[in-house]
Amino acid sequence: MKKELIITKDGSHSLFVPELNENYHSVHGAIEEALHVFIKNGIHSHPKQNINILEIGFGTGLNTLLTLENKKEVTVNYTALEPYPVSEKIYSKLNFFTMRNLDGETFLKLHTSDWEKEIEISGGFTFFKSEKRLQNFTTKKKFDIIYFDAFSPETQAEMWTEEVFNKCFNLLNKDGFLVTYCAKGVVKRTLKSIGYEVETLDGPTGKREMTRANKKGS
C-alpha cells in the first residue's frame, strides 16, 4: 500500500493511505492523540510496576516511542504486531523524536531491530515485534494492557469482530484492559457481549470519546 507523509495540527507527522482513504493518526495531532489515548488512559492508568503491553498496529512506532519516554519507573515488556511494516524511506523521515527531543537512534532501533526477537531497548524496556496478524499470533505471555490501534472499523472491519476481541480478552491478565481511540456503539456492544467492563472516556482533540475495556473476570 502506498503511504504519504502528512503533517497533523500539532506539527507531528502521520501517514495517509490513499488506497484506504485513511490516516494512521488523528489529523488534529498525532502525538497529542497518542499521548491522550495510550499514555494518559493506557500505561498511566495501570497500577502495576511491571507491565506487559501488546500493541496491535505498531505502524510508525509512535505509541512505542511515547511509552518508552513516559514509562517513569515502570518496567515495560512491549510486544508489537505489524503485518504491513513501514519502509525505511518513510520511517527515517518521521519527526516524532525531534518534536519530543528524544534520541533518534532509539527510535530507529524500534524499526530496524529484528522481527520475532526480544531485545532490550533501554533499562526497564524490552521490545519484541512480529509481522504476524493478531489472528495468527500465538504466545504464552499474558498482557496487562492492549493498545488497540488498528485502522477504523469502516476501513479494517475484520479487526473489530467478536472473534478478535475475544482473543484479546483471553490474552489479558485479570484486571488488564484494552484501550482504543474508537468509541462506536457497535464496538462497545461487542466488547460488552464478550465480558469486558466498558468505560467511555473523553477523547483527544477533535474526538468526543474513546474507549477503555477492562477485564474484571478471572
Question: What this model shows, in words?
Answer:
The strands form two sheets. The chain has an eight-stranded mixed β-sheet with strand order 6-7-5-4-8-9-11-10. The chain has a three-stranded antiparallel β-sheet with strand order 1-2-3, with no helix packed on it. Helix content is 26%, strand content 28%. The longest helix has 11 residues, at 30-40. It starts with a strand and ends with a strand. With 218 residues, it is an alpha/beta fold. The chain has helices spanning 30-40, 62-70, 88-91, 96-99, 104-112, 162-171, 185-194, and strands spanning 4-7, 13-17, 22-23, 50-56, 75-81, 119-122, 125-130, 143-148, 172-180, 197-202, 209-214. The protein has seven helices and eleven strands. α1 (30-40) packs across α2 (62-70) and α6 crosses α7.
Q: Span between N and C termini?
A: 40 Å
Overall geometric form: globular
What share of the residues lie within helices? 25-40%
* Count of individual helical segments: 7
Strand content: 25-35%
Low-pLDDT sequence parts: none
Biggest sheet statistics:
8 strands, mixed
The whole-angstrom Rg is 16 Å
Neighbour order of strands in the largest sheet? 6-7-5-4-8-9-11-10
Quick take:
The protein is of the alpha/beta class and 218 residues long. The chain has helices spanning 30-40, 62-70, 88-91, 96-99, 104-112, 162-171, 185-194, and strands at residues 4-7, 13-17, 22-23, 50-56, 75-81, 119-122, 125-130, 143-148, 172-180, 197-202, 209-214. The protein has an 8-stranded mixed β-sheet with strand order 6-7-5-4-8-9-11-10. Strands 1-2-3 form a 3-stranded antiparallel β-sheet, with no helix packed on it.
